């Protein structure tokens, strides 16, 4: 049997369905290019029928990724660009419109098959479900050669009915059959058994690739996916950092490294260039605002840290005592001290290139100016600092309002007070954008951060940028590196004030109910907080402007 396992990445589709993980079109394109460089075989670029914005973003990826030479892509084959569609003509037409420009397009269509979905969600009989699969997979195949079909909630579907549904999809022209454990319910031996039975009992299955798509509700997504592969699946659906609906999807980095590290046992391989994993993880974390837990396998900040004396002693004697992978293999360098105050633009650019950030021209100038300002405050500039600086410059949203100055007074006496100076009109995308102007506002709050956010809200309301104000859902501060002079990184999540959290659904078209994230870095955490809040506000305003433009 073929030892090659295809990697199907759904960071831009299932991953983007995590609340608040919404990305701008520019960020989606950047992620798609990174996935291509990483060696992903199939990029699920989005759900084109969700909104005109989603369709446009998928189309841009289809027009760009794989058409241009992506420097560093391990395989000479361009990646397949896939779009998701419900089993309806309307969705399939929109999906095809979006992916048609790709060199290798794929339509992924799905229909639920489990009893609970059939009875309560679809209100369809088994016969009706099979007929719809036949009709819509057939229609999809009339548009595109490469068709993937998913019986949603396959993990809880009766086996006999699953065989029937899959056989109908094959007869109608499906080329890949995906078996989603939509609710993350199955156990590894059980899921593997399902794949084995499907392989043995579905007529025509030998002409198709079997794919696994596992959710992590019981923390078993990676184990279930591997079990599926061991039983004959040759495509694994994954997301960077394991993001996705609820507890998320199988992590790309975990599958890639399990297959690579245990190659002798498994006898399998993927096309992933593992040295790009850390960079891809950081990019996705940055553009989605989904912080990676420090103990996350492969890409967490502590994944290669050794704390206890016994472990450190073992590591000094032989690294294999406590490490099954070298950090370099996943692109996590052990080097810390890299550059300082006297380093030049060339050395700075070269180091960024080595870290996987090929920054040039204007972006390099801006990042270098930030680096110099940081080097004045901080003696030891580490790789983590460099990445924070460059990410701040590269992934900054369109700035309708930006920080020009900030002063706070706080402590245990008197009221915490903040004065902010903001500049508006940097980006004239929406009707509401104010003219280029400076706005100064002072506010008191329960603390300095609250006072700063109130002052920003007042300016945003006064200039008509966002009259309703935003509600802060989450606020976190982390230190980029150790040490008293470390850069502080602030992440926030916001949404328009007064919206009901239960109604959150990132695939709805009404942007007023979406959650937006923002992040900012600075050696002063109040300044970092202001930057993070403005970045989230700017995303919200830009999304609303795009929605108004599309309407
Ligand atoms: O989890 C799921 O069932 C899905 C399908 C659309 C494949 O994401
Ligand atoms: Zn899913």
Q: Could you walk me through the main structural features you see in this protein, from its secondary elements to its overall organization?
A:
Helices cover 39% and strands 19% of the residues. With 551 residues, it is of the alpha/beta class. An eight-stranded parallel β-barrel has the order 1-2-3-4-5-6-7-8, surrounded by nine helices. Strand 3, helix 3 and strand 4 form a beta-alpha-beta unit. Helix 5 runs parallel beside helix 6. The longest helix is centred in the C-terminal third of the chain and has 26 residues. It is globular and about 75 Å long. Bound molecules: 3-methyl-2-oxobutanoic acid and zinc ion.
Structure, briefly:
The chain has 17 helices and 16 strands.
Rg from C-alpha positions? 24 Å
Largest sheet: 8 strands, parallel, barrel
Distinct bound molecules: 3-methyl-2-oxobutanoic acid, zinc ion
Low-confidence stretches: 428-433, 498-511
Structural domain tally: 4
CATH superfamily of the largest domain: Aldolase class I
The CATH architecture of the largest domain comes to Alpha-Beta Barrel
Task: State the CATH class of the largest domain.
Answer: Alpha Beta
Strand order of the largest sheet: 1-2-3-4-5-6-7-8
């Amino acid at each position: 049997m073929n030892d090659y396992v295809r990697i199907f990445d759904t960071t831009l589709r299932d991953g983007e369905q995590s609340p608040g993980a919404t990305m701008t079109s520019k960020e989606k394109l950047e992620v798609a290019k990174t996935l291509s460089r990483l060696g992903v075989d199939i990029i699920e670029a989005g759900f084109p029928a969700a909104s005109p914005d989603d369709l446009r973003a998928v189309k841009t990826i289809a027009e760009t990724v794989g058409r241009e030479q992506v420097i560093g892509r391990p395989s000479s084959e361009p990646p397949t660009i896939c779009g998701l569609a419900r089993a309806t003509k309307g969705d399939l037409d929109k999906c095809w419109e979006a992916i048609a420009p790709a060199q290798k397009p794929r339509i992924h269509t799905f229909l639920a098959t489990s009893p609970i979905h059939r009875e309560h969600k679809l209100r369809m009989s088994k016969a009706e479900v099979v007929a719809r699969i036949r009709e819509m997979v057939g229609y999809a195949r009339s548009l595109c050669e490469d068709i993937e079909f998913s019986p949603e909630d396959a993990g809880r579907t009766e086996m006999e009915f699953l065989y029937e549904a899959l056989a109908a999809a094959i007869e109608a022209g499906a080329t890949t059959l995906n078996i989603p454990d939509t609710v993350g319910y199955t156990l590894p031996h059980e899921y593997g058994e399902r794949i084995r039975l499907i392989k043995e009992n579905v007529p025509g299955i030998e002409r198709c690739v079997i794919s696994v798509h596992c959710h992590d509700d019981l923390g078993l997504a990676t184990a279930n996916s591997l079990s599926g592969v061991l039983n004959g699946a040759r495509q694994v659906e994954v997301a960077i950092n394991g993001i996705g609906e609820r507890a998320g999807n199988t992590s790309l980095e975990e599958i890639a490294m399990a297959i690579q590290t245990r190659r002798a046992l498994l006898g399998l391989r993927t096309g992933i260039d593992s040295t790009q994993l850390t960079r891809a993880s950081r990019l996705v974390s940055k553009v989605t605002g989904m912080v990676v837990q420090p103990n996350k396998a492969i890409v967490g900040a502590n994944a290669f840290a050794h704390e206890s004396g016994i472990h450190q002693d073992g590591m000094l004697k032989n690294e294999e005592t406590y490490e099954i992978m070298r950090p370099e293999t996943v692109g996590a360098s052990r080097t810390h001290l890299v550059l300082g105050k006297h380093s030049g633009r060339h050395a700075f650019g070269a180091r960024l290139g080595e870290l996987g950030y090929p920054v040039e021209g204007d972006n390099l100038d801006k990042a270098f100016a930030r680096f110099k300002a940081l080097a004045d405050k901080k003696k030891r500039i580490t790789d983590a600092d460099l990445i924070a600086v460059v990410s701040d410059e590269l992934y900054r949203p369109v700035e309708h309002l930006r920080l020009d100055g900030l002063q706070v007074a706080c402590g245990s006496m008197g009221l915490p007070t903040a004065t902010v100076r903001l500049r508006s009109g940097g980006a004239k995308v929406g009707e509401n954008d104010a003219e280029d102007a400076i706005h100064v506002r002072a506010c008191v709050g329960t603390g300095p951060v609250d006072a700063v956010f109130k002052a920003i809200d007042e300016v945003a309301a006064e200039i008509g940028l966002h009259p309703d104000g935003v509600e802060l859902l989450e606020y976190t501060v982390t230190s980029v590196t150790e040490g008293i002079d470390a850069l502080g990184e602030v992440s926030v999540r916001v949404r328009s004030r007064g919206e009901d959290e239960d109604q959150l659904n990132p695939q709805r078209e009404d942007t007023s109910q979406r959650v937006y994230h923002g992040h900012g870095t600075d050696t002063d955490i109040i300044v970092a907080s202001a930057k993070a809040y403005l970045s989230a506000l700017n995303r919200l305003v830009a999304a609303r402007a795009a929605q108004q433009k599309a309407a």
